[in-house]
Structures are given as C-alpha cells and as structure tokens.
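We close this part of the discussion by returning to an individual protein. The sequence in question and its structure tokens are set out directly beneath this paragraph:
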Amino acid sequence: MQTNPIPRLPLSRQLKLIATLPVAFFLMLVLHELGHTIFARLLGDQTAVFYLYRRFENGGFCIGCNIYNAEALSSSALLLVSLAGLLFTQLIAIGLLYLRRHAQNPSFLHQVTSIWLAVFVLDMPTQLLQIFQVDPARVNRLTNIDLVDTVYIIWQTTGFPVLLTRFVVLGLGVLYLTWVIREARKPQKTN
C-alpha cells in the first residue's frame, strides 16, 4: 500500500499558520465566554455582562469574563447557560469542519481551518477532563466550570447520581468527538 507524502510547506506559510494559533485560542476563549453571557441574557438575566478584559480589586484579572446572576435563572435556564460556552465553540467547530471540507486543498484557507478546527474542538476534551477534577457533591455549589456545573445542576434538580451523570456526560462528549474526527477524516468535496 502506497501512501501519499504530506507536502512540505514553505517556511513563510508555516510561520503564517503558526501566527494564526494565538488568534484562534483567543477567539475560542472569547466566543466561549460570550456564549454564556448571551444565553444568560436570553434566558432572563438582564444584568448578565461580558468583559473582554477585566481587572479585579484583589489584583486578579480575566480575559473574556462573563458575569451573570445564577439566582435570576431557573435551574433549566442555568443548565443551558452552563452549556452555552461549549455549545458556541462546538457550533463554530462544526462550521469550520464544513468550511474545511469545501476549501480547496492545499489552500491557505484549508490549512487555517484545519488548525482552527483543532483549537475549537479542543474545548470539548478540556471540559470533559474537568468533570473528574472537581466533585460537585463535595463542593455543593456552582464552580463556573461548565460541565462540572452541568453535573451539579442535574444532580441538584433530579437527584441523579453524580458519578453516573459524569459518565453519561463523558460518553456523550466522546461520541461527539468520535463523530468530529470521522468527519474531519472524510475526503474533501470537490467542486
């Protein structure tokens, strides 16, 4: 079986692609956090705000901060707000996947969308890993860690066991990531 070698890119193109990485990570972070704020406002918290950059009195700061009042939201609205950041990044990832499949290979657009797709999809495994780092039953409050809060809200509103909820969320995330990888490996559409 003969494989086609991956063509080597000129150094100038490699540098341009590498230069897009910080932009992709920044946009992923900002759009993720903006997703929380938009959903909080849509679902009833008119005080929800988003800051691109914010410095706190204690000397700390955040980039892409979303601030909303959890008490102003119903438990189902709070669940959607907790999932909204991840939902935003994954919808963008699916859009990038579509764009990548229709971009001419090896165009610069195809290469950039491939890199950005990886960055935006990376939000999902990062979130999935966090559900096993913090035990919602032990903390017994919202943590601002998206999927940990999702597990917490489900546990608090339904009594569904935390460990089982974690594994259900993990399973759904793995199924989604498997689908994305399968789609990304499909041959490109030709015009």
